[in-house]
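Hi support team,

I'm filing this because I wasn't sure whether my run with iron/sulfur cluster finished correctly. The job status page said complete, but I'd like someone to confirm that the output block is well-formed before I use it downstream. Pasting the exact inputs I used:
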Amino acid sequence: MIIKILGAESLGVRGLSCSVELKNRKIFIDPGIALGWLRHGFLPHPFQVAVGAGIREKIIRELKDTDDVVISHFDGDHCPLHEPNPYQLGLDKVKDILSGCRIWARGTENSTPTQQKRRRDLEAVVKKDLENADGMKDGCLEFSCPVPHGQRGGEENMLMMSRIQVEGETFVHASDVQLLEDKTLEIILDWKPDVVLVSGPPLYHYSSPLFNDLREKALRNAKRLSRNVDTLIIDHHLLRSKEGIDWLAGLKHSSENRVCCAADFMKREAVFLEAWRGELYKWLPVDEGWHEDYMHGKADFNDYRTGGWDALISNNRIKPCKWYYCCPVKAYTDRGELERYWIEEYCLVGNKNCIRYQMEERGEYHPDNMLPDGKIYKALK
Ligand code: SF4
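And here is everything the job wrote out:
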């Protein structure tokens, strides 16, 4: 089972999108993306917009050979949309791909009118009625009945969790549950997972002492889950604030089993761009009217894209790969012979999945024109 997390707060955007590759089946869960609209008094920084655009392209690429698509619920950061804002994923970009996939979608009960409309929009573009996947099972794939989005409250806005089990390995995707409900936790534990990807509590909303009970509950549940799961990946709502980042660091420190964020799991540096938004504006001021111009196609993010990575490095937020400054991949990129994708995906975030890096560590020969994914790019000399 190969689990690839594509979008999450530790990777720079809102969402919890991931693909799971099995021997003969590829499953994609929650192909959506968003950027917090207004945080710390600021709209998304253009650097975050650039990172988001890269992740949106990755989601589209990854969907192309997917057999099953799961939508845990129809919030705008978890599904493609008929009317996306400039930072989300539009249905028009993926409608042909989705038409060829089996779609497992949360039902219409216990969901908001907006979520129901988004579900109907999806049905319209794939030209079929979607079955209600709540509580269903299909071979290695299984879904929970609806569980609360965070704390149990009204009957609206519930979501479904997914379980994938093959050859003794079990993965659970528990989007937006926020670790706040004991019953939800029981379902996860009953599924006996080895790896869990879950949304942590939205500490950025808990400014008053009135929320202390919720804080304690989430921490208690996180500790309980970590004791029973080999790898616990906590991300999403939790990592939208510095307080959340510290919360996770404390939990990692005190847990015997592995606790990490999506970026750690993907063996690369984390970029908590929403939590760092205020600082990004200080390090890299944004031209007045940029968002309006971007929305109308009159501005792009290219300068902010390069400036943003430089700012993260110079302010010690990320550490590039130790070979970066002497690696041919950097030289090709600087000369404009290679797309920046490669350095942003691997070099600048110290991605240990880089094949060149791994071969370097083993002292094995590898040609200059080998890309970080191990493929030889003959056009490079
Ligand atoms: S290509 Fe690989 S080895 Fe070279 S700098 Fe990038 S991550 Fe490091």
